[in-house]
Structure formats: structure tokens, C-alpha cells
Write a structure and sequence with these properties.
428 residues; alpha/beta; Glutaconate Coenzyme A-transferase; 7-stranded parallel β-sheet; 24% helix; 6-stranded mixed β-sheet
């Protein structure tokens, strides 16, 4: 269905002018081919604001060559934009993932152009946003001009991601493999033990929210003896495939979307992208719906599994920054931590290795100066490391600190006990 709107990436990006705000489709749907063409225009452009969540693929926004041409206003920071976001040529917007569509719809961040990647149009003329409906649904609804990379490798997913080809202003036909991430390759012994510990908290009939990374992947590997599990999660990865195929995740006990797995975006390997392609059992929906606390809480036993950079002795969770250095973003952690806590028999879980990659304790007396509190101590319930499981809900500050010290790495327990005494003037 190639027509007069079909042009090259180089011609498509000529519509973009200095000072424009441009939405960039994120995660596995990052339109790298078009972005490369846009970057080639860097000598002609100044202060083009690029707005997106995580971007994947072989595209680098950190190169100093582009600093005056593009301003990265990130809604969730990723590796290929981290340096520029932490410079004068970019910044980060702290916001719950569920509320990002509001920025577009209420013209808080009005968009001039949206660059997206979609599946080829079907016989009715509908393309699919594929692996990432998330915030892209609102962006394409509000953008006055849409440039789309049409990629036959993009899966056609069911849900809120359909866009008719007539709504797209420029079609760039270009096939390329989607970027892949394989979290199972990053699991060490500590992560495997955490996966086992978290899985012990998951009850039959639970509705799962699985975050990003190797820990959630290990949790899924430990759920093979469960039954009647449901899936309502912002993000989908390869680990759910065997559980769905074996009928362990059958969504039979949910109250919303019974029989269907609900997500908003997926990131994984080609196996995952093939699995979701034209799969009516997977519903990929707008993030403002999937991550709405009032929706999440309606399902039973919502078990939300998220991670963190560090947690202090009172239970404050930093999940988005290293001190003042912006590493990632708030994302959907608070949406699901709160939703799970309000769900009947729900369990909001923070799961972390006891040590950082540099061998420092993730359980700390105080968060680093400038660190962002993503999940407040009032929202934290379950915390899991490879050394055990604690529930902080209803516990006072001293009790919380003692519980967290109990699951800290042995090498740091003495210093944490000293910090406890210095703070509370007691050893009890």
C-alpha cells in the first residue's frame, strides 16, 4: 500500500524546523532509521526538543556533535541519552508513567511532530503501534503531523495501538530488526536467589506486574508450579511466554479483561516479538489505562515486583537517580506499588540485590544527597534481597530499620547497626 505519502526518511524529516517539539516513539519501537536522517540535519537545526521515554537501538543522543541541534527532554532516561540529559543540553521530567499522556492531551507539552514506527497497514488500512502503545497512543492522537517508519518486522498487536494509514502524513518504508534485550543473560547467584524469594510471595490466582530487568525474569522462572495467574503489567518480556503457553498465566481469576494478558509495551528478544504478533490473547493498551491505580486495584492479589537503586533504613526508595545524577525515571513503579497495596490481598514488592555492582550496600542509612524518592516510606510494604524477605507495612521507624538490616549484606550489617544507634540513640 505504497502511495504518494511514501517518501525517504531524509525527505520526511524536512518538515521538522528549529524550535519544534518532536515526540519519539520509544523502547523496541524506536524509529532509528528516521532518527538517523534527522541527526544528519544537525547543522541546519537548533534547539529541536525531542520528547520520549526509553529509546533503544543503535542511536546515540549523547554525541556532543548534536548538543546545539537537539535538546533531549526525557520522560524516562535511557543509556543512549543519559549523558545529555545530565547536561545543559537536556533534562528530565519527573512524572508517573500513567500521567504522561496528560502532558500531551492538556497541551502542557504540545507536540509539533510525532515520529513513530508501525506495522504495515492491513487490508483495512490500519497500522499498529506494535511493541509500544504506552504514551505513543496519546502522542499520535495529539500531534498535527505524523512521520511513520513502516516496518514489516514490527508485530501487529491487539488493543489500543491501531492507527489508520490516512492519519499518517509521511510513510517511510524501511525494514529493520527490532532492538532486542535478554534479561536472562544478566542473572548472577544473588539475582537467582531473589527470584526464588519473591516467587515464594506469589499466590495462586495473583495478578502480576513485572518490572524491567533480570530480577523479574528470575521470578517468572520460579512460577512454574503456580496456577491461575493473571497478567496486568506495564511491560512484557520473554519470561512470560512459557507461563502463558503452559496455562499457568491464564488470566482466569482477574476481574478485568478475564482471559487476556494486558500490557502497554514489551521489550525482549525476537521470540517475544513473534509471540505477540497478531496474538489476540495479548492486549496492548494506553498507559493511562494500564497504569491507572483505580484500574490496577480492581484485580485480585495484585503482586507488583519492582526494583531500586537504594533504600534507606526508614524505607524510602530511590529508583531513578544516583544522587543528583539522573539514571532512569519514576516510570510506573508508584502506579503499581500503590495499586497493588489497594488491591484485595495485593503485595507491592521492592526486590533488590543487597550490593551494587561496585560492592556497596543498597540498604543505606540515608539516601545519597540529591537522590530522588520514587516510592515513599508510606508506600513501601515488602522488601526482598537474596538474604530474606521483610514487610515494613505498619512498622515504626526503629522496627523498619531493624528489619532492613536483617536482610542487608553481612559485610554491612555492623555499619548499619552503628547508623541505627547514631540515629535512634539505642541499640534496640
Amino acid at each position: 500500500m505504497e502511495d504518494k505519502k511514501s517518501i525517504s526518511a531524509e525527505d520526511a524529516v524536512k518538515i521538522i524546523h528549529s524550535g519544534n517539539r518532536v515526540f519519539v516513539h520509544g523502547s523496541a519501537a524506536t524509529p532509528v532509521h528516521i532518527l538517523e536522517a534527522l541527526q544528519k540535519r544537525h547543522t541546519e537545526l537548533q534547539n529541536v526538543e525531542l520528547v520520549s521515554i526509553s529509546t533503544f537501538g543503535n542511536i546515540n543522543f549523547n554525541d556532543p556533535l548534536y548538543r546545539d541541534s537537539f535538546y533531549i527532554n526525557s520522560l524516562f532516561v535511557s543509556e543512549n541519552s543519559r549523558a545529555v540529559v545530565n547536561s545543559e543540553h537536556g533534562d528530565y521530567v519527573p512524572i508517573f508513567l500513567s500521567q504522561i499522556p496528560q502532558l500531551f492531551k492538556e497541551n502542557i507539552l504540545p507536540i509539533d511532530v510525532a515520529i513513530i514506527q508501525v506495522s504495515p497497514p492491513d487490508k483495512h488500512g490500519y497500522c499498529s503501534l506494535g511493541t509500544s502503545v504506552d504514551i505513543a497512543r496519546a502522542a499520535v492522537d495529539m500531534a498535527p503531523y505524523i512521520i511513520a517508519q513502516i516496518n514489516s518486522k514490527m508485530p501487529r498487536t491487539h488493543g489500543d495501538g491501531f492507527i489508520h494509514v490516512s492519519k499518517i502524513n509521511s510513510l517511510v518504508w524501511h525494514d529493520s530488526e527490532l532492538p532486542e534485550v535478554d534479561y536472562s543473560l544478566k542473572a548472577n547467584d544473588a539475582v537467582k536467589q531473589i527470584g526464588h524469594n519473591v516467587a515464594s510471595l506469589v499466590e495462586d490466582g495473583a495478578t502480576l506486574q513485572i518490572g524491567i530487568g533480570s530480577i523479574p525474569d528470575q521470578v517468572l522462572k520460579n512460577l512454574t508450579n503456580h496456577e491461575g495467574l493473571g497478567l496486568h503489567t506495564e511491560m512484557l518480556s520473554d519470561g512470560v511466554i512459557p507461563l502463558i503457553q503452559k496455562g499457568i498465566i491464564d488470566n482466569s481469576r482477574k476481574k478485568l479483561h478475564v482471559g487476556f494478558s494486558v500490557t502497554s509495551f514489551m521489550a525482549g528478544t525476537k521470540k517475544l516479538y513473534d509471540f505477540v504478533n497478531d496474538n489476540p490473547g495479548i492486549r496492548v493498551k494506553d498507559i493511562s489505562y494500564v497504569n491507572d491505580t483505580s484500574i490496577i486495584r480492581q484485580n485480585p492479589k495484585v503482586t507488583a515486583i519492582n526494583s531500586a537503586i537504594e533504600i534507606d533504613l526508614t524505607g524510602q526508595v530511590c529508583a531513578d537517580s544516583m544522587g543528583t545524577y539522573q539514571y532512569s525515571g519514576i516510570g510506573g513503579q508508584m502506579d503499581f506499588m500503590r495499586g497493588a497495596s489497594l488491591s484485595e490481598d495485593g503485595k507491592p514488592i521492592i526486590a533488590i540485590p543487597s550490593l551494587t555492582s561496585k560492592g556497596l550496600s543498597r540498604i543505606v542509612p540515608y539516601l545519597k544527597e540529591g537522590a530522588g524518592v520514587v516510592t515513599t516510606r508510606g508506600h513501601v510494604h515488602w522488601v526482598v534481597t537474596e538474604y530474606g524477605i521483610v514487610n515494613l507495612f505498619g512498622k515504626n521507624l526503629k522496627q523498619r530499620a531493624k528489619e532492613l538490616i536483617r536482610i542487608a549484606h553481612p559485610d554491612y550489617k555492623e555499619s548499619l547497626e552503628k547508623a541505627f544507634y547514631d540515629r535512634f540513640k539505642t541499640g534496640n
